[in-house]
């Protein structure tokens, strides 16, 4: 290997290291929303979701729409249905970076607020 | 190796409202198809994966979001393999690295790389300019801008070799090219990078 190439390799490696130290960039909220919706579709396709009641038992909060859905519907299938499919919040969040949705415990709202733990 | 840069020191425990879970417990909940755990999984990993992919695919911003989504879908299919030996972040970044390399591989297989071209000389200022600027805070930004000016095959080979820390031999094997061809492509890419870096720097000094 020539000295020039070795020197170049060293320089470019240093440059790569330097530019990798740049601050972590946040993913757009609408991208997180789309990813979440895609994963939920996959989960539904591979079998029923965990029932809303079980989710609550695990310590997660339900949003106002999920609460309503849980009370208004009966039967195992309805409790395991992804009711976000019917919710306007999902549609807005998948298309707008700053979707005007503010429901507590709505996953799509969470994506607009997510911060790293150390923040 | 780049793997070392991907590793985080310990398992992260982040907060999802009042609900705090370790990476391993979170994944167990996702595997039970808990919708809130799935949301937490996305919230926890999207930023580092997005940031990594964006930097490695630069300047192709148009491909970033699709590739990030692919990373999550691939991860979801292999979630049962996550053992918690490394952090979820490192595990996800490992998958992202494979996806990015798949992109490099397919692009370098398809793009013409002009194996017969001669390598241009650096000119007197080439390496000196770069060496002088590396320690400055603007170096990273300027590197990205310079990469964006290059033909796609040059940007890809530089990213793969130096940012992805792969050897010439590995890249040659992955792309089905000879090591010599990859070496020549890389030499031309470095030469063009330095030339454009120099032009950019001269323009800022004026």
Describe this structure in words.
The complex is a heterodimer of chains A (119) and B (206). With 119 residues, chain A is an all-alpha fold. Chain A has one domain (23-113). Chain A is 58% helix and 0% strand. Chain A is built from 7 helices and no strands. Chain A has helices at 3-20, 29-45, 52-57, 64-72, 76-79, 88-95, 107-113. In chain A, helix 2 (29-45) packs across helix 6. The longest helix of chain A has 18 residues, at 3-20. Chain A is elongated and about 75 Å long. Chain B folds into 2 domains: 2-110, Rna Polymerase Sigma Factor, Chain: A (Orthogonal Bundle); 126-205, Winged helix-like DNA-binding domain superfamily/Winged helix DNA-binding domain (Arc Repressor Mutant, subunit A, Orthogonal Bundle). Chain B contains 10 helices and 2 strands; from the N terminus they run αββααααααααα. The longest helix of chain B is centred in the last third of the chain and has 27 residues, at 179-205. Helices cover 70% and strands 4% of the residues of chain B. In chain B, a hairpin with a 2-residue loop joins strand 1 (13-16) and strand 2 (19-22). Chain B has a two-stranded antiparallel sheet with strand order 1-2. Chain B is mostly helical and 206 residues long. Chain B is elongated, with a radius of gyration of 20 Å. Chain B starts with a helix and ends with a helix. Classes of the chains: A mainly alpha (119), B mainly alpha (206). The interface between A and B is large, with 50 and 54 residues.
